[in-house]
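Sample entry (255 residues):
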Amino acid sequence: MRTTSVIAATALTIAGLLTTTGTALAAPNPAPAELSPVVQLEPATGTTNGPCHYTATPDDPSPRPVSLPPDPVNTPNKGIVKVLLATNQGPMLLSLDRTKAPCTVQSFLHLARSRFYDFTTCHRLTLYTTLKVLQCGDPTATGERGPGYSYKDELPTDLPNWPTDPTGASKVYARGTLAMANAGPNTNGSQFFLVFADSRLRPNYTVFGTVDRLGLKALDRVAAAGVQPTPEDPAPVDGTPVRTTKILVARQLGF
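Predicted structure, serialized as tokens:
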């Protein structure tokens, strides 16, 4: 009964979001002209002056127009913010933790409000024994693009050690963790990953929230279908998901 109520309430929320953005729920592959208008923003330039120091990356411009995020001197650093990812595989309710990663949450909310994540495809599924994640956030679905800016790491300090690592260098990124993907230190942009089973990683990835129970069920379905085979590898454990996962809309709730 309780589960049914949650599902029904979430479905109504998603339907409302899709209606608000002008996209019919029955149109899984709308033509570009039918999509809700994307907020037109000036491309990111320069560096913001607040504590987050969002910095434009002219050598790696955004495939969608988006400005640098707001960077107030007093960046909000307390509380949980809810963001709903309405996907074709089911709803994923994200809880973003400003306390753990205020600059990351600020950026993620900016990208959601700019509709940067709308109608994007999660491009990478990883099914290694000790690494099980779905990666999203690149509008080109290649894993090579970002928002045209980067910002500093906000690395976790409270993750438990991986049980079989005697050095303590590897940590547990637990099932339900939401974290930023990167290409090295301080290269955060728009790509993020969702952990659907406890994973072993060095603490080099900013943790900024969690995924709810319904979102994990959707991730489990994607994971169960596996990775698309290639001529070189008929049974891959890292690559494009067989079950395509599209973010239809990403919206902050309760504001």
